[in-house]
Each structure stands twice: as structure tokens, then as C-alpha cells.
Membrane protein (Paractinoplanes toevensis), 121 residues
Amino acid sequence: MEIAYWIVAGLLAVFYLFAGVQKVSQSQEKLRPMMGWVDQIPMPVVRLIGALEILGGLGLVLPPLTGIAEGLALAAAIGLVLIQIGGAIVHLRRGEASVLWLNAVLLVLAVVAAWLATVWL
């Protein structure tokens, strides 16, 4: 279970740290080609989503790695589940069903990470 957790958490952490840093640091114009939805959501909200993704990614790995407040890993996984539900809703409202596969994969991985956190940690 421990190895499975680290694989899932590591994959999610890399993805969310990358995506979160982009949302926090790049302009709306640079984000638009990859994330068309940034035109419909105020940039402070996009930045908030990015910050939450960074915190979620760090929350999956730092608490178990340090042994401090390990329950935060479960909270981070649940937070990432909620981010993906919100992302799927945005894509559905925009008629972007073709990109829902990524939301579904990330949602499943976050649910698995939450489950593994309850079993292993």
C-alpha cells in the first residue's frame, strides 16, 4: 500500500505542481491556448485555483514524507477531488466533453490517493 500511495501521490504532485505554478505565474494570454476557460473566470480566481493545486500537490507528499500531520495528505487528496469536480463542471458548461478524460483520470487518481491515505497513513 505504501508503494502504491507514493506512486499515485507522486504522479498527482508533479501534475498539480506544474499546473498550479502555471496558473499562479503566467498571464491570461499565455494560459489561454492551454486553458480557454481563463477568459470566463476572473484571474484572481485562476490564481487561487493554482495556489490550491500547489498546496494540494505539496500536501500529498510533505506530511507523509516528514511524518508531521500525516492526516493532511488525506485532506489534500479530498481537496484535489473537489478541484477536479469543479473542473469537470466548467468543461461541461463550456461544451468541452472531449477534454473530460483528463478530469476523470485525475479525479480517479485523487480518490485512490485519498483511499490509500486512509489505509496506509
